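Severity: low
Component: inverse-folding endpoint
Summary: output formatting inconsistent between runs
Steps to reproduce: submit the following C-alpha cells with default settings.
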C-alpha cells in the first residue's frame, strides 16, 4: 500500500492517494470472491468523488450500489469496508472514561469490571446507540492495554492484546438482561409488553456484541495489517462455504440461496437452449428453398431439435454431516424440478428407501431431513453408512426406476466404513441409465483415503467434487438437459 501520508475520517490514504486506496479495496473484494470489473471500479471512483467522505454511512451505501451485483455479497463487503474505511484511527477519543479500581498509591489501577457492567446496563436500558459505540471503543482499548501492562523492559515492550472474546467474557452483557428488565418493568405491564421489551434488550445486547467485535477487528488491523486480519475476519460468501465444515447458521444461510441460485441456473439454461435450438443442416429443405433463388442457397434450413426432458433418480446419503450437502442439493433439484419430466428421490444410510413423497411440489421442506430420518427405513444393524448394502437394496427393490431415459445422481462422500463397496451392482445400474453422475462433497485430495472408496467408484461412474454451493451449481448446470 505504501506509506501513509494523511487520513480522512479514519481512512488511511496511501502515497498514491485515495484512488489507490479505492483500488486496494476493490482488490480485497476480488480476493474474497466478489467479482468487480473495471466498469464497477470506475463507478465506485465517481461515488467517492461525489460523496462527502465524512458521511460514512452514505459512502458505504454508495460504494455497495456501485460494486455489488449479486445477493449474498453484502457481509463480505461490509467487513472489508470497515477495514479499509474505518470510523476512527487509534485509541478511542470519546467522552467515556472506563471506571478503574484505585491503586494503593492513588493512581488508577485495573479496570473495575463491576462498575463497567453497571455502566453498560444503564446504556443498554436507554438504548443510545452512539453511547454504546463509544463505550465499546473505550472498553476494548482499556481491556486491551490492561493485557499489555507490565513492569520492566519486557512489560514496556509488550503490545496491546485486542480480544473480542476476552472483552465480552468480562462484561458478559447477556447476564444483564434480568437486571435491565427489572429496571424497565412498570406496574400494569402485561406479558406482551414484557416480551416486547425483552426482545428489544436482546437486540441491543447483540448490537453491542457486534460493536465490540468490530472495534477489536479495527484495532487488530492497525496492529497486524488489514490483509492479515481479513484472512480470518471476512466471512465467506454462502456459495463458498464448504458443506462438510458448515455450522448450523451457515447451512441455514445456504438454504436461503437455493432459489436465487436456481433462477440463475434456469436463466443460463434458457440461453443454452436458445443457442442449441438450431440443429444440423437439412440438405433437402435447403435445396428446395434455393430453387426460388436460382439454385443459390440463400436461406439454409436446419433440423429443429426437440430434446425431451429426462427422468431423474436421486440416490442420496443422509448420514452425518453429509446430510447437509444432500439436503441443499435436494432443495436445488426441487427448485429446478420443471427441467425434468419425473423426479424420484431415494435416501440411504445402511439401507435404501424411497422418500419421493416428501419432496412433492408444495411440500414443506424446512424440516424434511428430520422426517426422512424418522419415517424412512434406512438402518439395519449399527446405523453406520454402508454404500454396498444400500446399492444392493436399491437395485433389488427399485431397479426398474433406472431406464434408458433416466439420469441417475448419487450424492455422498463414498465412505463405506471399510465394508464391501458392491461395485458390481453400481456398474449394472450405471449401464442401465441414460446418464449417471456422483457428486462428492469431500475434497478430491481425500478421495481414496481411509475408508473412502471414491477412487474405486470413480472407475464406474463420473465423480465430481462438490464442496461448496458454487461448485455444485457449476456441476448441476453442466448436467441439466438442453
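Observed output (run 2 of 3):
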Amino acid at each position: 500500500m505504501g506509506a501513509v501520508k494523511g487520513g480522512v475520517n479514519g481512512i488511511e490514504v496511501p502515497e498514491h492517494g485515495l484512488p489507490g486506496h479505492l483500488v486496494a479495496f476493490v482488490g480485497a473484494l476480488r480476493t474474497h470472491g466478489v467479482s468487480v470489473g473495471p466498469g464497477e471500479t470506475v463507478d465506485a471512483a465517481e461515488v467517492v468523488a461525489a460523496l462527502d467522505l465524512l458521511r460514512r454511512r452514505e459512502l458505504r451505501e454508495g460504494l455497495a450500489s456501485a460494486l455489488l451485483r449479486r445477493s449474498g455479497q453484502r457481509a463480505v463487503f461490509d467487513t472489508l469496508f470497515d477495514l479499509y474505511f474505518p470510523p476512527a484511527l487509534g485509541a478511542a477519543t470519546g467522552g467515556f472514561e472506563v471506571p478503574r479500581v484505585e491503586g494503593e498509591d492513588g493512581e488508577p489501577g485495573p479496570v473495575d469490571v463491576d462498575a463497567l457492567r453497571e455502566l453498560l446496563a444503564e446504556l443498554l436500558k436507554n438504548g443510545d446507540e452512539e453511547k454504546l459505540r463509544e463505550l465499546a471503543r473505550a472498553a476494548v482499548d482499556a481491556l486491551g492495554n490492561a493485557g499489555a501492562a507490565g513492569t520492566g523492559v519486557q512489560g514496556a515492550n509488550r503490545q496491546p492484546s485486542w480480544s473480542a472474546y476476552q472483552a465480552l467474557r468480562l462484561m458478559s452483557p447477556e447476564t444483564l438482561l434480568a437486571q435491565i428488565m427489572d429496571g424497565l418493568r412498570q406496574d400494569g405491564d402485561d406479558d406482551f409488553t414484557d416480551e416486547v421489551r425483552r426482545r428489544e434488550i436482546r437486540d441491543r445486547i447483540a448490537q453491542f456484541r457486534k460493536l465490540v467485535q468490530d472495534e477489536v477487528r479495527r484495532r487488530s488491523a492497525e496492529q497486524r495489517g488489514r490483509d492479515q486480519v481479513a484472512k480470518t475476519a471476512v466471512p465467506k460468501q454462502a456459495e463458498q462455504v464448504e458443506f462438510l465444515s458448515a455450522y448450523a447458521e451457515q447451512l441455514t444461510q445456504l438454504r436461503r440461496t437455493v432459489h436465487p441460485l436456481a433462477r440463475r441456473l434456469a436463466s443460463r439454461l434458457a440461453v443454452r437452449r436458445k443457442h442449441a435450438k438450431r440443429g444440423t443442416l437439412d440438405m433437402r429443405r435447403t435445396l428446395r428453398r434455393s430453387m426460388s433463388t436460382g439454385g443459390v442457397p440463400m436461406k439454409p434450413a436446419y433440423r429443429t431439435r426437440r430434446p425431451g426432458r429426462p427422468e431423474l433418480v436421486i440416490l442420496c446419503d443422509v448420514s452425518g454431516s453429509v446430510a447437509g450437502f444432500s439436503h441443499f442439493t435436494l432443495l436445488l433439484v426441487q427448485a429446478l424440478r420443471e427441467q425434468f419430466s419425473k423426479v424420484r428421490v431415494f435416501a440411504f444410510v445402511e439401507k435404501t428407501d424411497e422418500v419421493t413423497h416428501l419432496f412433492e411440489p408444495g411440500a414443506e421442506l424446512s424440516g424434511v431431513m428430520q422426517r426422512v430420518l424418522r419415517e424412512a427405513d434406512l438402518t439395519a444393524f449399527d446405523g453406520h453408512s454402508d454404500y454396498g448394502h444400500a446399492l444392493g437394496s436399491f437395485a433389488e427393490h427399485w431397479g426398474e426406476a433406472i431406464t434408458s431415459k433416466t439420469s441417475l445422481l448419487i450424492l455422498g462422500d463414498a465412505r463405506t466404513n471399510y465394508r464391501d463397496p458392491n461395485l458390481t451392482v453400481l456398474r449394472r445400474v450405471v449401464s442401465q441409465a441414460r446418464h449417471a453422475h456422483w457428486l462428492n462433497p469431500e475434497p478430491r485430495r481425500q478421495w481414496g483415503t481411509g475408508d473412502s472408496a471414491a477412487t474405486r467408484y470413480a472407475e464406474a461412474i463420473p465423480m465430481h467434487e462438490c464442496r461448496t454451493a458454487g461448485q455444485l451449481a457449476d456441476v448441476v448446470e453442466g448436467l441439466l438437459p438442453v
